[in-house]
Amino acid sequence: MKLLKSIVRPNKVDEVKDALAKLNISGMTVTEVRGHGKQKGHTAIYRGKEYNVSLLPKMEIEVVVPDSIADDAIKAIVQAARTGEIGDGRVFVLPVAESYRIRTGELES
Amino acid sequence: MAAPSYDCAGEPRYVPSMSVTRPDSTGAPLKASLHAAREELRASIARGAGGRGALERYADRVDALIRQLFTDAGAHDGPIAIIALGGYGRRHLCLHSDIDLLLLFGNGIGPAEERFVNSFLNPLWDLGVVVGHQVRDIEDFQQLETDNPEFLLALLDARAVAGARSVFERFGAVFHQPGTHAFILRSLLGLIDDRHAHFNSTLYQLEPDVKDAPGALRDLTATRTIALLTDPLLLRRGPADAARFDDVEDFLLRVRSTLHLECGRNQNVLSHELQERTAEMLGYPGAEPRQRVERLMSDYFRHARIVSRSLEWARRTAPVPVGPNLGVSRDGVRFIDPAQAARNPASWLGAFQAALDGGTEVSEEALSCIQQHVDRYRADDFFVDARDRSALLRFLKPRPGLYARLSQMHDCGLLGRVFPEFQAISWRVVRDFYHKYTVDEHTLLTIRNLERLITTDAADRMRFRSILLDLQEPELLVLALLFHDVGKWRDDDHALESVHMAEHVLDRLHVSEDARETVLFLIRHHLRMSLAAFRRDTEDPDIVKQFAALVGTEDRLKLLCLMTLVDIEAVSPETLTPWKAELLWRLYVDTYNHLTQRYGDERIERNEAGLNELLANTPEDVTPSEIAGFLEGLPQRYLNVFPREAIYRHIWLARDIKPDEVHLSLERKGAVWSLAVATLDKPFLFSNICGVLSSFGMNILRGHAFTNPNGLVLDAFEFTDEERFLELNRDAHNQLLKVMQDVVSGRADVTSRLRGREQGILQARSAQRFTPVVHTDNKASGRYTILDIVTGNALGLLYRISRVISQHGCDVDLVLISTEGEKAIDVFHITKAGAKLTEAEQIALTSDLQRTLEGTV
User: Fold this and answer.
1) Is the minimum CB–CB distance between A44 and chain B shorter than 8 Å?
2) Considering only CA atoms, which of B648, B709, B703, B655 is closest in space to residue B679?
3) What CA–CA distance (Å, rounded) separates B544 from B547?
4) Domains of chain B: residue spans and CATH
5) What residues of chain B, 773 to 792, have a C-beta less than 8 Å from chain A?
6) Is the pLDDT of residue B9 over 60?
7) CA B715, CA B689: separation in Å to the nearest integer?
8) Domains defined for chain A, CATH in brackets
9) pLDDT tens per residue, range B785-828
10) Which residues from chain B sit within 8 angstroms of residue A9, using beta carbons?
11) Does the pLDDT value for residue B10 go beyond 80?
12) Cβ separation A46–B592 shorter than 8 A
């Protein structure tokens, strides 16, 4: 199993969700996050005064998928979230050692 | 209480301070029983026990006497009641007090009734008692006798002594009306003041009048009366509890009784001579008379002080009148006369406004009065005239307490009756798995969120708060919020249905065309900003540009931004995350900057699609090609800012203009004046216009300067005339236009005109409350250097700024002026010799402006 942590533009969440649904992946966690990568943010000016927007709003989508479809899922996320401009985000892939269902205590494989 | 009187013909009039006694003749058994009663009272007084108990026993025996006389007067056909008033009504009948009576008939007064009056009163007079009597028919109490407040006060103590109980009860029902009570209360407060003034308003009299002096018996009764008329439980919370108050009363009555006994008449002044005798009779210890007197008097002052304090406290604490037929007390605002309120639904909003103003609520009593009667009225009944309509708009200004008052209005059925459109969403459940509350409550919560914004100290809300405080007409936002979801009574696209329904509301409220457009715009597009902020890539300049095109002006942007914020926040406590607030803010800033800084870049082009409406309705003497020629090259913003009529007016002004001509138009809309100046470009043009307006004391609210490629300049200003120069002076209009002509065309100088005012005593510039911000930007616009100035507003400010700009050889091509409270926000679009300023030029200009604004030059 793999945990895919994707940081994407907020307006791309729905597209990523739809793309994953096509692979029959439906369970996911979506979190509002702020951060910056290579962009480093910028400063905005409101009425002559500067204010800092160094942390950009992003969405984080976490999804756990079987190893067999991990590559397809990553591809689907990348394609759905891509605009081509700086700031499209990242997909991190982490191995999942074990997973237990809380209700029943079962170990999933 | 009331002075006794004699009413000769049984006319319902009260003649104060006239009493009559008749010589003794018959009625020996009655006389004997009156004598016995008096002797018993005398004996009690002599024992020092002439207090309440003894007086009540005496009153009871007089009651028996009256009843006997009533029986002796013979049968009477119609219903009649003999009613004790004033002190006798309270059963505090002193030895030589008048016996105040009301002879009340239930079926009119004719010869038979007159005969009865004679046969009843004559024997009473024959007994030698002092009678103050009134004769009335019960119908007389339908009209309030406003010329006789003492009588009305005496009626509050009315007690049935003899005759038909039913007549007395009918009297009670007719007399005890909230309106009557309110009148009596007001009169009583006036009488107290007059009486106190008589005693130099001090209770510490060496020879006090134990009836009338401050702190004496009348004050004690007045205190109880205030409580009775306003809040029967009032005295429980006062400086003296009921038992203590009774003790004080007993003491004062004992003193008064000894005075009556000693003098043999109705004498109430505790004079030096009588003090010794009284002290002795009341059993004060002391070897010397002087010691006994001192003890008596200190006891008197102690008691009088309690009365005095209680009265003052009651006056302070009792419900205060806060409007026509409205009083505020502990449980909130209530109708003084609910029956009157029930007949006048247009007055109900006043109760909610008074509660809002006083930081309290509308009392349960008033709410149930409204609830009981609200169904009798239709929406139009609540807005009888323009005053009622503007009162509603005033009520809707967001401020702490508005949500709570609107909720009360909703709960008692008033809101849904005033706005049947709102009733449509009452308790409406929409299962969208997103909203957590019924549609009506969600709507009211948006207003709560808005009012909370005013007092917020949360760091991430302060920026939105500053937008709210800047709004000129925040009540329009509340109006839009109130109706933004009313279309949800249907299941399909609710925004359009809401617009449709709100149109009816706005028709009924007769709001101005501008306000109407704004409210409908907000309702129609209330979901658009959250869509753009959360579902679109706002880093993309095209998205911002499209959104800016949708809102058109900064005012609408601000309104829509706040509307979006409070709407999301009202979905559920978790919906508006700091993250969403941040996205919303960024879209706001980007759009604001686009609207204020990029507007010079987008020009109106010939054959532009948006011109169709303008071309379709042209007045007879304006041709489409003239319109197109006039508009070509003006910024797009021009079409957003000015209504059609104004654009036609501008076209007329600009027509066939010669180089040395200045065409002006001045008109008024409500409190705001609009000035349009059309001319060909001239040096110092903009600053001269500002200078002239300031020199006439005008407060410039906003201004737009537009230049087209042919050198035509159109400057449009909105200003208020707080000194009312234009309103109060007949030729003011022409005078202002004449000076404007002269200054703009270079025939007169504005500096000297302005100097007088700037140095005048009325315009002494107060300390700057804002640190001025001057910022230049060469990137935002493709054509111009943008100069942002935010500073404290002051007379001649624009004139000073624009002069500095001109002195630097720069041209003001476009400018956006706005005033928000004490803050002036000016965005100038400038060029120098047709190009953007170099960095060095920007620095020089900025530092000069900074010094000008800080007042160091």
Assistant:
1) yes
2) B655
3) 5
4) 28-176 (3.30.460.10), 183-318 (1.20.120.330), 420-597 (no CATH), 603-644 (no CATH), 657-854 (no CATH)
5) 773-775, 777, 788-790
6) no
7) 9
8) 2-108 (3.30.70.120)
9) 999 998 887 878 888 898 899 889 888 877 877 777 677 888 88
10) 537
11) no
12) yes
